[in-house]
């Protein structure tokens, strides 16, 4: 059992070590070359856009709960019991989907939460290098 927990901890450490955005937050951007920093800025922008897209989808799934409740009232007024049970079954499914989607997004896009700070660190480092290059 100890080996399992050790392997799990090592995988977590390796996953965090491979995340360059978390490394920039921890250690700064001095150890990256200029092309790598520019590439990281593009990657960060793509991840932020992808995160926003998935966040919208998760929000729509969560907002569909009210739609299912409205359909339930409609089917109840039409005395259509299959529709009532189907829409009532969809309410907890959409809530579970919303919750699971948020947990997944927060876990997968952990560095995107601090995207503005990472971008600021990278831009400041690129500006510092640009100023240093103009001196010579």
String of helices and strands: HHHHH
Q: What percent of residues adopt helix (DSSP H or I)?
A: over 70%
Strand content: under 5%
Number of helices: 5
What is the first-to-last residue Cα distance? 59 Å
Largest beta-sheet details:
none
Low-confidence stretches: none
Globally, the shape reads elongated
Rg for CA atoms? 23 Å
Number of strands: 0
Structural class: mainly alpha
Q: If you average the pLDDT, what whole number results?
A: 88
What features would you describe in this structure?
With about 140 residues, the chain is mainly α. The protein is about 85% helix and about 0% strand. It contains five helices and no strands. Helix 2 crosses helix 5 (about 115-135), helix 3 (about 35-75) packs antiparallel against helix 4 (about 80-110) and helix 3 (about 35-75) runs antiparallel to helix 5. The chain is elongated, with a radius of gyration of 23 Å. It starts with a helix and ends with a helix. The model has no long low-confidence stretch (mean pLDDT about 90).
Short key terms for the protein model shown above:
136 residues, mainly alpha, 5 helices, 86% helix
Question: What is this structure, in a nutshell?
Answer:
This protein has 136 residues and is mostly helical. It contains 5 helices and no strands.
Secondary-structure topology with pairs:
Layout: H1 2-17, H2 20-27, H3 34-77, H4 81-108, H5 115-135
Helix pairs in contact: 2-5, 3-4, 3-5
């Amino acid at each position: 059992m100890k080996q399992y927990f050790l392997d799990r901890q090592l995988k977590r450490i390796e996953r965090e070590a491979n995340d360059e955005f978390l490394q920039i937050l921890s250690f700064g951007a001095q150890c990256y070359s200029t092309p790598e920093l520019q590439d990281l800025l593009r990657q960060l922008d793509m991840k932020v856009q992808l995160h926003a897209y998935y966040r919208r989808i998760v929000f729509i799934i969560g907002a569909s709960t009210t739609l299912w409740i409205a359909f339930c009232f409609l089917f109840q007024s039409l005395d259509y019991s299959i529709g009532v049970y189907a829409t009532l079954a969809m309410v907890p499914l959409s809530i579970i989907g919303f919750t699971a989607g948020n947990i997944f997004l927060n876990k997968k896009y952990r560095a995107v939460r601090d995207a503005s700070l990472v971008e600021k660190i990278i831009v400041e480092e690129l500006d510092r290098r640009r100023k240093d290059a103009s001196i010579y």
